[in-house]
Amino acid sequence: SAVISQKPSRDICQRGTSLTIQCQVDSQVTMMFWYRQQPGQSLTLIATANQGSEATYESGFVIDKFPISRPNLTFSTLTVSNMSPEDSSIYLCSVEDLGARTEAFFGQGTRLTVV
Amino acid sequence: KQEVTQIPAALSVPEGENLVLNCSFTDSAIYNLQWFRQDPGKGLTSLLLIQSSQREQTSGRLNASLDKSSGRSTLYIAASQPGDSATYLCAVNDYKLSFGAGTTVTVRA
User: B49 in helix, strand or coil?
Assistant: First the structure.
């Protein structure tokens, strides 16, 4: 299994500012994923972060709003840019164990409130 | 596009009762299905992973079944405890994960 550390665990930010969320994994993984969970809703995939290439974004998410870095096989960051109250959500980092079981593991999430 | 539905949306039971949580999905061409637990404001904890070739998986008081042809999975929690109170999410992997909206469980002491 993979252990994922995500920072910060929560933050309250002013509208118009940006926040960078960090995700550190205790083992090397090929793909890392970023999800958003809006209040009272389930998880929505934002993008897939691959080491050495640009992130792949899902429909409705763009790089200018959610830039992602993936400098190595154990670390990734997601930035939420030019924030508005609608960005208030829990943001989660995930990895998949690409061994035989392909089990997904998640960090503890970053609870973001934009005021 | 894969659609995942979880029924019921919420469930309240007295301690000791068995829990039955349902998950259905529209496209049966999946690699696996995973059940997660989420506590309020927190991340997801993996409970059980069922590969597409399997019919069920068990871990302690938890048992999950999978009927891929009919697009259904059921999570059974035996002898529920107040500590089981959480939201349970079903996720289907058909190259990427698609999540249901979850079932929020309250176990009353």
Answer: strand
